Amino acid sequence: MKPDRVVFNALISACGESGAVARAFDVLSEMTAESSESKGSRPILPDHVTVGALMKTCIQAGQADRAREVYKMIQEYNIKGTPEVYTIALRSCSLTGDLGFALKISCYLLLYIWFSTFHTCQTYWVILAVEGEARSSCLQCFNQCMR
């Protein structure tokens, strides 16, 4: 029986708690690899929990730059961001001093919360709209989404 996403995410978190960064990424590779043992087996795609656990793992190991690389998985795997993931990403920015990336993440977090609260539009659409305006300030991003 092949482990599911929950098991893989728990393993990644456990690796992070024990400081085994390389093993956490090995678990991610195992998770996303197609199993050669059984026909028709598909890879298990990461979700927001996976991204958050890997980012925490990197930050706890003093690898904040690597946490930012992990954040890119949101786009790569079309993952819906969450306040927790955005908060972890902001933590990596505070450690690296990357103000530009911090502003971008703050925009996503602000819009996520605002649109989730008022149910004005789907958060997924907001994230896609903001992504095209990544170099804009939060106010410009907000105005773009409100059109």
Ordered list of secondary-structure elements with their pairings:
Elements: H1 5-18, H2 21-32, H3 48-60, H4 64-71, H5 73-76, H6 83-96, H7 99-118, H8 123-131, H9 138-146
Helix pairs in contact: 1-2, 1-3, 2-3, 3-4, 3-6, 4-6, 6-7, 7-8, 7-9
Structural account:
Helix 1 packs parallel to helix 3 (48-60) and helix 4 runs antiparallel to helix 6. This protein is 70% helix and 0% strand. The protein is globular and about 45 Å long. It folds into 2 domains: 1-97, Serine Threonine Protein Phosphatase 5, Tetratricopeptide repeat; 100-147, no CATH class. The model is unreliable at 132-136 (pLDDT under 50). It is mostly helical. It has 9 helices and no strands.
Features of the shown structure:
mainly alpha, globular, single chain, 9 helices, 2 domains, 147 residues, Serine Threonine Protein Phosphatase 5, Tetratricopeptide repeat
